[in-house]
Amino acid sequence: MAIAIMCSGGDSCGMNPAIKSFVDYCYEKELEPYFIYEGYDGLIDNKIKKAKHKDVSGILHLGGTIIKTSRSKRFLEEKYRKIAYENLKSHNIDKLVVLGGNGTFRGLHTFAQEFDLSFVGIPATIDNDIYGSDYALGVDTALNVIKSALDDIRDTSFSLKRAFVVETMGRNCGYLAAISAIISGAEICMIPEIKTNLESLEKKLKDELKHGREYILAVVSEGANQTDNLVSWINDKLKMESRSIVLGHIQRGGNPTVYERLMANEFMIYAIDELLKEKTQSIIIYKNSKFKFIDIKKVMDKKQKIDKNILKQLEKMTK
Predict the structure, then answer these.
(1) What is the pTM of this model?
(2) 127 catalytic residue (yes or no)
(3) Considering 41, 94, 127, 140, which one is annotated as catalytic?
(4) Model confidence over 17-43: pLDDT tens digits?
(5) CB-based burial label for 220 (10 Å; 0-12, 13-18, 19+)
(6) How far apart are CA 193 and CA 208, in angstroms?
(7) CA 62, CA 68: separation in Å to the nearest integer?
(8) Sign of CA pseudo-dihedral 96, 24, 136, 309
(9) How does residue 291 score in pLDDT terms, banded at 50, 70 and 90?
(10) Burial, 68: exposed, middle or buried (Cβ in 10 Å; 0-12, 13-18, 19+)?
């Protein structure tokens, strides 16, 4: 029985540990594992190759993905999806494990409606915005990268009596910024999910500055689109020299954490076992410390929300 793995969309730490677990577990179950290189584009171009143990030797500590990934515009067209399906058939593959985020799963949903496929999608996105799941591969490593950056920036902020506005990734979801603000003790946090009351913060921070505060650390999600505005606001309203730092793609790379490696292995074992039981078109999620499967349509139809307890902890940084 042939089964293939593919990564799509943005890379995230945890993909390589998942790929290694995929190959190891497939051979343990006497399955034929295949790699699809370069995401949906590679599927269209028939970049499909049987995987061996030597392909995954020594990759656990590597960020990114050894089988590459892509954002495919061609896959949006039906004629290319048909080519992709014919390529799978040529290798006798009718079962897929797909690592990615919402864009990846939308493409997978369309693909599976048109052709006879069985698949399990594994959340792998640092935005952590997959509906129903508390966690996605890459999130823990990204948070640790941000944590280290914020700790270093605070040293300079303190030394120069300066404000720093740090922008994290999170296109439509403020999870990374929210968690990072909490664990770094930031004074200001701006995310798409909450409206920040700058008037109230101005009064509060002016009082703190009057009574000895010497620096300010602010964390802003890219989805809030407020980084430059906040720098200007701090300069104008608080009369404090301010700088912005966009962390960017360093949040996607790095050495996968212990948690990331363990979760990648768990996700993969559950995914393959599910594919062996029956035909499925589902996403595996991790909710309340348990793994479960939900229909892909449910993931597409609903939007993930940040936990209310997390938002509650942000009140002192937003009001």
Answers:
(1) 0.96
(2) yes
(3) 127
(4) 999 999 999 999 999 999 999 999 999
(5) buried
(6) 26
(7) 13
(8) positive
(9) very high
(10) middle
